[in-house]
Amino acid sequence: MTHRIAVSLLLLMGLTHAHAQSNRTLELAPFAPLADQDFLILIQDEWLDGCLGTVEMSITAEKIAIFARAANPPPGVGCTDAPVPFRRIFNPRAAAPGFDFGEALFVEYFFDAGDGPELRSGYAGNFRTDSAGTFPVQTGSWVTPGIASSGLFIDQQRDIMTALLADYDEDGKAVWFYGAGRVTGSAFSAPLQRFDEVDCVTEPCERVAAGETGRIDIVMRGFDEIVVAVDGLPLSARIDQTEARVYQRLPFSRDAALAATPPELPDLTGRWLVGIRSDLGRPEDYRPYDIAFDRVGRIDDRTGYFFLAREVGGMEEPRTFELICVEAEGLSAPGSCVIADYVDDGPNRCTLVDVNWRRVGIERAHGQASCNSNFILESVFDMFRVAFPANDPGSRR
Predict the structure, then answer these.
(1) How far is 321 from 121, CA to CA, in rounded Å?
(2) 272-311 pLDDT, tens per residue?
């Protein structure tokens, strides 16, 4: 049975990808893990009050279970009444080295408010053996508002990323942590090497040396938003290393004379693998589509670009859908698109939130699709580039 995804153009102006993802309590990065690579599980939820709680992961042959348990304070101990958001990132392969996860992955997230665990989210699917692609993020300086005087610098060259974390240790001395590794889909994990000042014995000196290591895990959420967790680092006590934090890229400005002229069209033409991710409520549904530019129009007071996607595969009446994109607000910002009239094979009716596009070299785009299944879950619409058009310079990369 098919169903139609209808999307309001109002989403173009009112709802970003970051907002769309904010309601998901469980995310996998990459969304379909590879059989031989690290994958990350991001949990984001709210404690009932200021008493907080604990989050633990259990790994068995049957499944990965994550339990968030609200704290039960002793009598007479009061807590603030307001809910407190929390985020945790788990790396199952790092937590259980050598464990055989088999061919399939089953993940469940439970929240226990004191009256027993409640299933809130889940994932079921097979490990993939092909490439997960590479999620692009902005090279530059990143900060998280919750930690003053802490910074993260990221450089990404295709599927290789380097990360430099600058902070202070337990004694208040400046310290730097450096790591490099391969990006797998939207996940990055790497060991960190510590660099700090050398205490010279015989004479004063100014140099740094490498020392002990820890680890960094990054879930890439969008063009300029990531979720970061570190572990095992000798940082100051003001940093809770069990908590994952959202980092935003610093929007540095530059002289107008240095601004390059952007291309007129979003970089979306070509062949893509398109579909809805698998979850506990629906099967995986990916098919190849050719995307071609259709026309330019106006959406409110902004330029709109209309693209037509046609299914590939020799069907008598191939399926089609439309991508409607609006121009970026400045060179440093991604534009946004919505998908209209997309039809898939799932049994549930879904609505699709907008996806972001980059003007140069986009290879993957995705947005949340909320479905009325029997599970309290959100599916995700994905697009993976398979090939550039023959006359596109990007096809020669």
Answers:
(1) 29
(2) 888 877 655 555 677 889 998 888 887 777 778 888 999 8
